[in-house]
Each structure stands twice: as structure tokens, then as C-alpha cells.
Design a protein that fits this description.
The chain is α/β, with parallel strands linked by helices. The chain contains 19 helices and 17 strands. The chain has a twelve-stranded mixed sheet with strand order 1-2-3-4-8-5-12-13-14-17-16-15, with helices on both faces. A hairpin with a 5-residue loop joins strand 6 and strand 7. The structure holds 2-acetamido-2-deoxy-beta-D-glucopyranose (12 copies).
Length: about 600
Amino acid sequence: MHYSSKVLVVVATCLGIASAFNPGPKIHRPGSDKVMQVNKRQLPAEPTDVLSITTSSGVNITYKEPGNEGICETTPGVKSYAGFVNLAPDVHSFFWWFESRRDPVNDPITLWLNGGPGSDSLIGLFQELGPCNISEDLVTQINPYAWNNVSNMLFLSQPLGVGFSYGGKAPGSMSIFGSYLNAQEAPPDGRYPVINATAIDTTDLAAVAAWEVIQGFLSGLPQLAPNLKSKTFNLATESYGGHYGPAFFNYFYNQNQLIANGSAKGVQLDFNSLTIINGIIDEYIQAPYYPEFAVNNTYGIKAYNQSIYDYTQIALNAPVFGCLTQIESCYYANQSALVGQGVCTEAANECRDNVESPYYAFGGRGVYDIRHPYEDPTPPDYIIPFLNQASVQDALGVDTNYTSFSNTDIYYAFQQTGDFVYPNFLEDLEHILNSGVRVSLIYGDADYICNWFGGEAVSLAVNYTHTAEFRRAGYIPMTVDGVEYGETREFGNFSFTRVYEAGHEVPYYQPIASLQLFNRTIFGFDTATGTQKVSANLITNGTAQATHTESFVPLPSTSSASPSASATSAPKIPIIPRNKWARYEKKARLVKDASN
Ligand SMILES: *[C@@H]1O[C@H](CO)[C@@H](O)[C@H](O)[C@H]1NC(C)=O
Ligand SMILES: *[C@@H]1O[C@H](CO)[C@@H](O)[C@H](O)[C@H]1NC(C)=O
Ligand SMILES: *[C@@H]1O[C@H](CO)[C@@H](O)[C@H](O)[C@H]1NC(C)=O
Ligand SMILES: *[C@@H]1O[C@H](CO)[C@@H](O)[C@H](O)[C@H]1NC(C)=O
Ligand SMILES: *[C@@H]1O[C@H](CO)[C@@H](O)[C@H](O)[C@H]1NC(C)=O
Ligand SMILES: *[C@@H]1O[C@H](CO)[C@@H](O)[C@H](O)[C@H]1NC(C)=O
Ligand SMILES: *[C@@H]1O[C@H](CO)[C@@H](O)[C@H](O)[C@H]1NC(C)=O
Ligand SMILES: *[C@@H]1O[C@H](CO)[C@@H](O)[C@H](O)[C@H]1NC(C)=O
Ligand SMILES: *[C@@H]1O[C@H](CO)[C@@H](O)[C@H](O)[C@H]1NC(C)=O
Ligand SMILES: *[C@@H]1O[C@H](CO)[C@@H](O)[C@H](O)[C@H]1NC(C)=O
Ligand SMILES: *[C@@H]1O[C@H](CO)[C@@H](O)[C@H](O)[C@H]1NC(C)=O
Ligand SMILES: *[C@@H]1O[C@H](CO)[C@@H](O)[C@H](O)[C@H]1NC(C)=O
């Protein structure tokens, strides 16, 4: 691939999977004024035997049962529905619902969202925690550690334009940057969603749109799953889901209260838990940990030298142009106005280009796994060819092509508002914690882009009713059947877990631990051991720092993907300095001043 490093770096965001790494997109020659002819055979056919219902609130849902055609959830007796919540002629949101394999009547409802912005929740479905994954010969195989072993699961592709969700659709192709090109711009190779990417370009707007889709879906659920009794709702997210999780949950929670007291119509839920895996929650808190993680991680890897490190420190801390100062300016700015969004975007650019990205340019190591090479062959990308098979398209009831996990137009639309560095996600998290809802932060300790140092810093910076007790709690081993998979700090409804030997997509690397972390979170067991019911005063009595180390992993060649690092006989290396709350306190003052 001959992208400039700048493009690669910018696209290599919290995408979950960066589209630029996929071998997929072909190079087209834009600029031709001829309308290219579509090869009809390449356009997916209209799906057959699509079923539909009108829900109690008048929403049209179209769907199929892919499991009946051998796709994904083939466990006998376990139902699954894939289809669209059609809210308007130009709003069609793709969902995939899986009944719980255990007790679909009484098990809760969990919504899973990947990040991006612009990344598809089918990443999580096929690569992480869904009922199946895709084998090299492009068939689905059962995942024994799927999260629908303990919960009904809803996977939603959002906002519109992500995955199979569409506003309109038309023949076209994808540019080398992963953006949609119509038939006038380049020879079409398939049919794709056509959207106005700037219509939903902030997390807060996406939350409003997602709630409408979820309410539409829930209003049809009595017809799709007539026996389901549970109204217990969990949200689980990853990566840019560090933004989505807190903002969506908080917005949903407030809308639900309006439904509860009769001031809004809709399906009322019981809000139970929020899980965030390797999330970017607050750039101001997390940005300083890019350089720290790059040179002083628990794998003994020093990804770049002192000169580069010094450069990142200037980029981070310099007055006026520094990453942190610019984020402070963003807090003062009006984020609803063009100028304010520009200020925030510039802040995000400075942080990404000069604090985060030197690792990509000089480290040679994986964005999502420091043990891997930059062009990381894991997890394998069989999903894209799988989803472009006519038989699979028909079984899912879709007629658009799938060439990337991530919609680049949506990514850049969010980039242009500066959503990446907005301050409200930490505040949303604080509201959620104060409301008593359970929150689990889970971070794989090999991920660079949303690394656990930054996640831990967020957990300690959160300012809520039990901040003092949470900070007083220590780390204890997180175990399943006697095997230690990580370290957890927990007080009451809040926990932070570092998972050993896991990259960004934690459930892919540590499926057993991930399933139990999820199971314990949603059913109210202590996160570390699953042996006690969680109570308001539950506290982990352990060490102040998560000091476990791993042995050094030499940079592997691009062709091999062995993530295995032996946990034995690791040299004890000291871990990061925590310059504590000073920065956060400064930030909190600024936020307060700005809102006065
Ligand atoms: C789009 O899907 C059709 C199958 O319906 C397939 O023949 C075609 O190659 C796909 N296009 C791309 C770019 O994958
Ligand atoms: C829902 O919309 C689809 C597609 O427009 C249509 O074919 C179907 O008849 C509608 N279903 C109902 C129940 O109105
Ligand atoms: C799919 O899951 C099976 C069963 O857990 C596992 O053996 C296999 O390696 C996985 N394949 C991929 C491509 O992740
Ligand atoms: C998940 O459920 C399947 C089917 O019920 C079962 O075979 C499997 O053992 C379960 N996995 C775990 C980890 O309990
Ligand atoms: C896209 O959406 C934005 C925001 O709703 C709107 O201002 C703009 O006019 C739309 N663009 C097009 C081409 O429809
Ligand atoms: C309903 O709840 C909302 C949010 O808590 C509150 O703002 C509103 O005043 C309440 N309305 C009624 C009618 O109680
Ligand atoms: C540090 O690394 C950079 C990039 O590889 C290189 O240009 C520079 O010479 C190195 N500096 C030292 C002091 O080794
Ligand atoms: C922020 O900008 C929006 C859009 O221009 C404007 O409507 C709003 O009044 C501004 N808010 C403040 C506090 O200036
Ligand atoms: C969920 O966790 C509880 C508490 O540790 C345990 O008893 C139960 O077996 C777990 N469920 C599954 C399916 O692993
Ligand atoms: C932790 O310590 C507190 C106070 O010393 C004690 O009350 C509590 O039982 C301990 N919890 C555990 C799990 O050991
Ligand atoms: C790594 O972190 C340790 C512990 O916080 C600190 O003492 C040490 O100076 C750091 N080393 C580097 C190279 O930053
Ligand atoms: C935390 O919140 C409390 C109560 O809202 C406030 O008084 C305090 O200043 C906050 N602390 C920080 C560090 O922001």
C-alpha cells in the first residue's frame, strides 16, 4: 500500500480496525467525466423472502433469520434476526439480534457498539464476542465464549452509512481513502450506502439517533421475541465507544426517565450497566499516556528513543500550540459553532499528529497491539469477503456491498467537529456512576491507541460520590477458575480491570476472561472473582498499582502474528509515574469557568 504516512496515521484512529490496513480497496482513477457502466453481475440482488412487521409505535421492521440458513448462530433453538429498523424513507438502520443461548426469557438485553467513529458493530460480532467468527474458507463457526451465552444481544450499525445501515443506496466504489465514489467518479464495483455524513457528526447527535432506532426496535420486540420478559438493559462499547458509551448511556437514561414519568412515549427499560473496553473517554487525561506507554510499558518495549520522546513532551505541554493547551481552548470555545469546532479540531490534530503518532512513524509496532508489527495481520479479515457473497447477502436481507469495517466519510465528519477532544464524556460517566448504575472499564494491556495507562488515569480522575473510596481500593487478581487473567480495582458499582496479554479487541485475545467480566458485570458479581454479590461497600483490598509485567516481545515480521508473550520469569520493571490529579483539577476548573 502506498498511502502517505500522514494518511495512514490519521486513519489509524480508534477505528477498532483501521480500514487503511485492509488489503481491500482498489485504486480507482477519479476525474473521468464518463458515467461508468455497472457490471450488473457485481450488484447484489434484491434479497428474497424478507419478512416485515409494523411495531406498536408504527415503525416498519424488515428482517430475516440468518441462523435458519446456517449463518452465525446455529445453536439449536436459539433465534436470531438480522434486518433494518426503517424509521423514514431515508433512515434504515441495520441490526442483528441474538437470543440468549441460556435463558432468553429472563436474561437481560445488551446493546453492543463498536467505535470509530464510523466503525461497524459487526467487528465485535465476528471478531470478538458474537455467536460466531469467520473461518478462512468463509463460513461461520460457533464461538463458545459468545456473550449471548448469558444475555440477549443487539448489534447495531450506527450512525447511518456504517456497515449495512443506509440513507439511500447506489452503485459506486470506495476511494483509496475509503470514501464513497459514485458512478460518475469511478467505475462502480458494487452497491453502497449513500449518506450525508455531516448530518450526524458528533457523539451527542449519534446518541439521539441511536435512541430512536433502539426504541423502534424495542417496540417490535414483542413480535420478534414474544416470551422475553426482561427489561434490564446493558450497554457495552469499545474504542471510540469510550465516547459513545458514556454519552449514549446518559442520554438514554434521561430519555428513559421521561418515559417513566409519562412525559415521553416509549418502551421503558431498567438501566443496569455500562461496559467500556479500551475506550478513549477523555483525550485531555489520556493523551499524556501515549508517550509513556510507548517507552515505559509492562512489556519492556521502548518503541522510540529519547529524542522522539522529548519531542512528544513539547507537543504535549507547550504553551499556546501544545496538545493540552489547545484542548483547554476547546473547552472555552462554543462547540456548537463553526469556530469552536475548528478550535477543537485543531487541538485533536495536534494531539494525534505529534503526541500519539510518533509511535506509528518511528515505532514500527501495532496500533492495537504493541506486540505486533504496524501492519498487523490479526485478527484476520475474512469478514469482508464473507459478507460480499451473494448467498450471505441474501441470508442477511441486504443488497449493499461491504468493503470496509469503517466508514471514512463519517470518521472525517466527526473529525471536523472536534468531537474527539470534547470534555463531556467524563462528565457523562460521572453522572452515570452517581446514579448507581454499574460501570466496568476493561483495558487490554497490549493496546497502544487506547492504552490502559490512560484508562487507569480516567478511572482515577472520575469525580463522583465515591471517588475517595475508589482511589483507596487496590488491585487484586482477576481470576476465572483459578487462572489469573488481569488485575481489578473496584469499589461498589465501579471497577477498572487491566487484562493481561490482550490487544485492543480484548474479547478476541482473552475470550474466557471477557465473558466472565461481562457476566459478572451484568449479573452483579464482584468483577475480580465472581464469588460475591456486589454491594455498595464492596472494595478490593490490594496493591495501589497494577505492577504485573510481561516478558519482552521482539518486533515480529509482518507475516507472522504470534502475540504470545510468556508471563513467566518476567523481569520486574517499574511502571508509569502517575502525576495524579493535578491536570484533571486544572481542567475541572477550566470547565467550570467556561460554563459560567
Ligand atoms: C458486491 O457483491 C456481489 C455479490 O452480490 C459481488 O459479486 C461483488 O464482487 C461485490 N463487490 C465487491 C466490491 O466486493
Ligand atoms: C415495510 O417496508 C417494506 C419495504 O419498504 C415493505 O415491503 C413492507 O411491506 C413494509 N411492511 C409493513 C408491515 O408495512
Ligand atoms: C474462531 O473461533 C474458533 C473457536 O473458538 C477458534 O478456534 C478459531 O481460531 C477462530 N477463528 C478466527 C479466525 O478467529
Ligand atoms: C456457551 O453456550 C454453549 C451452548 O449452550 C455451550 O456449549 C458452551 O459451553 C457455553 N460456553 C461457556 C463458556 O459456558
Ligand atoms: C447534510 O446535513 C447537514 C446537517 O443536517 C445539512 O446542513 C446539509 O445541508 C446536508 N447536505 C446535503 C448535501 O444534503
Ligand atoms: C420527568 O422527569 C424529568 C427528568 O427527571 C423531569 O425533568 C420532568 O420534570 C419530569 N416530569 C414530570 C411530569 O414529572
Ligand atoms: C532517534 O530516532 C530518530 C528516528 O528514528 C532518529 O532520526 C534519531 O537519530 C534518533 N536519535 C538518537 C539520539 O538516536
Ligand atoms: C453557540 O453557537 C450556537 C450556534 O452558532 C449558538 O446558537 C449559541 O447561542 C452559541 N452559544 C453561546 C453560549 O454562545
Ligand atoms: C456467571 O458468573 C457467576 C458468578 O461468578 C457464575 O456463578 C456463573 O456460572 C457464570 N455464568 C457463566 C455462564 O459462566
Ligand atoms: C477489605 O478491607 C475492609 C476494611 O479493612 C474489610 O472490611 C473488608 O472485609 C475487606 N474486604 C475483603 C474482600 O477482604
Ligand atoms: C518508567 O516508569 C517508572 C515508574 O513510574 C519511572 O521511575 C521511570 O523513570 C520511567 N522510565 C522512563 C524511561 O520514563
Ligand atoms: C468534584 O465534584 C465536587 C462536587 O461537585 C466539587 O466540589 C469538586 O470541586 C470536584 N473536584 C474536582 C477535582 O473537580
